[in-house]
Amino acid sequence: MSFLERLLKDPVRFARLKRWFYVGLAVVAVAEIALPLVFDAGHPHFSFERFPAWGSIYGLVSCVAIIVVSKLIGKAWLMRREDHYDS
Amino acid sequence: MTPGWIHPGLVLILGAWLLPLLRGRIKRAAMILLPVAALVLCLVSTPGTHGVVHVLGLDLVFGRVDATSLVFACVFALIACVGMVFALHVEDDSQHIAALTYAGSALGVTFAGDLLTLYVFWEVMAIASTLIIWQRRQPSAIAAGFRYLLVHVVGGLALLAGIVIHWTQTGSLAFGDMGAFSGGLAWSLILVAFLLNAAVPPLGAWLPDAYAEAPVTGAVFMTAFTTKSAVYALIRGFPGTELLVWLGAFMAVYGVVYAVLENDARRLLAYHIISQVGYMVCGVGIGTQLAINGATAHAFAHILYKALLFMGAGAVLQTTGLRKLSEMGGLYKTMPKTLGLYMVGAFAISAVPLFSGFVSKSMVVSAAGETHRAGVFLMLTLASAGTFLHTGLKLPYYMFFGKESDRPQDRRGKEPPANMLVAMALAAVACILIGVFPGLLYRHLPNPVDYVPYTLQHVTGTVGLLGFTALGFFLLLKHLDPAPTISLDTDWFYRRGAAVFVKWIQTPLARLESGTVGEVCEFVIRRPVLGTAHLLRRFDSFVVDSLLVGIGRSIQSSSQVLKTAASGHAQHYGLLMAAGFLALLVLALLA
Fold this sequence. Notes:
By secondary structure, chain A is mainly alpha-helical.
């Protein structure tokens, strides 16, 4: 059994992995807010980039928007059976 | 040709024909040495105008060597090397010849200094890439190849028409910035041809259609040349064209939307080519020094990581025979090396810090920021999240992890042959090198670079964007399960629309045919022709025939007279002679 397989198959280890993922996200978001206050982060191009944790928020919003909007367009219009062009 | 400069593209195009003559190890050495030789020739090329050929009063420039053409040529030659290593195990000369010709003609496009040379190599590229698709030798690939060829023939004709009009109007074939002719017919036609090859919607549906059908090894070449040579042509001809900014930004999002719906692994990656080329097209449209540098750098980085991703998906296809995400899963156990190398490509395309996409994509996004285009900036950033969502999360999740479907032993997957892994490793090393040492790439860009990718804000912002994209992915995972469907794209118009159109037009067309066209035919062609024929027949039967009959009759009667005279009795002849003699005597006496 490889390292990766142990990590994914063992529920205890998998739960630990999940926890580290959330901790990591929290660290990233906090770093994004805190580090520009401590160090000079340079001048952003747009005012909305000054919003605290802008990258993290926009990432989550983008991801959800892409999935939801694409699925809606797909279900309503674009998705067809695989033999659409064969029949 | 100027002495001292050898066209790297011609080395590939002509050298490819050596392969059928060689066997075994020598052949494999030649397969590697040809693209390596082309790469070396690119590296030692000195800027300037080389290879000027005078034909029919025209100056054809085969070697316009400057920073822009060199950086594109180098990456084209580099990926040809990687692609040939990846294809080393394939025992099919025709595939290698097509691939090398394709790579060579892409180099030809890159070094072309005039529009005619550009056009010739442009068309060779279309034909060679069609041949690559057909090498898969399956009905679906043959059909996709024909569609691909027809679309590119249309693009090629638009280019030719544009060139001819431009030539007539200006008297020059030089290939430079077309900005001065903006809005004209020649400008539009050439732009349309370039946009078609860059797979800009609605002209880009050929790309996922064809690339998913190409052979495993051939697809690696396909990902590199057609779209990126079009980006190069756009940089040369259309920098700063406002239309391109919006087309590019739209394209970046468009590819991401289709990737959500896609079930075929290589089609998903193909839609992300469209998305990534969107950044380049957008950069060309913005047209500032930073933006052009960004488009060039992103093309360079993109060719390497996209080839790596296609090699990864191709390795899975080759060893499992599976192409649909809904049928894959659990391959991390049998293909861990492929997974690791694929993930390098996935991190590179997702612009994870320390990977190549981070240092190239951000140049275009920053250029959008510097020119205060908030909408474009937001669209490109959203597409970045989408890129990571699909290439970095969805595809590896369903391919290598996820639910393991029940599959027979031969579909469980195994690591691909060593040469394929080596090729992937080469591309992976390049992705990391560029990401860690961006100066290696920046040094060769067309404009001087004063851009620093690793700023605090950029790194934290990117990590935040990617991290929370991953969060969104895992939260919505159950909605992302790939379904066995296909998605309509603009290829519908020629795959289905054409049939609907024909059905719709059939009845009026038939009516038109039997009605107007029939009547016109009756009165303009049929009746006059029949009348003339009738007249001729009468002339024949009355005049010609009676003439012949008359001649026959008179010959017959005169021959009757002659028959009477020639009786065959000697006494008659003697009598005639005596009568004649007497008559002569009388004449002599009386005279």
